[in-house]
# Entry
Amino acid sequence: MDTSANAPIAMGIAVNGNYVYIGDQMKGLRIFDISNPASPVEIGSLPDIMMVFDLAVVGDRVFTASYGFVAVVDVSNLASPSVEDMYQLRSSGLSVGIDAEGNTVYVADYDGGLAILNYEE
# Structure
């Protein structure tokens, strides 16, 4: 177990097909191939988004909940995910939970309650 200051701190998880997406407080978004469940392999990451508390996957997009904002991440290239858009929430609190259906993103915001975003590609 890595107990260093930079040790992973997994907070949120989403599964889509043979891939698992993990929101990590210290290491951002991490993507694993689980086609062989006995030996998962990390195939991509996006450390630029720190403090990811939760995430949701819709198609080739991952929506991440962090401190007061939601990031839309394009994962069409799993080895090289990229931030496509950012949404600042009205409160500056913690975005602690997130879910998405189609182009609608629902965020549980610690200070602001429920935030609903409509994402347009």
User: Anything to note?
Assistant: Residues 61 and 74 are 5 Å apart (CA to CA). The mean pLDDT is 87. The longest strand covers residues 10-16. The chain is about 0% helix and 55% strand.
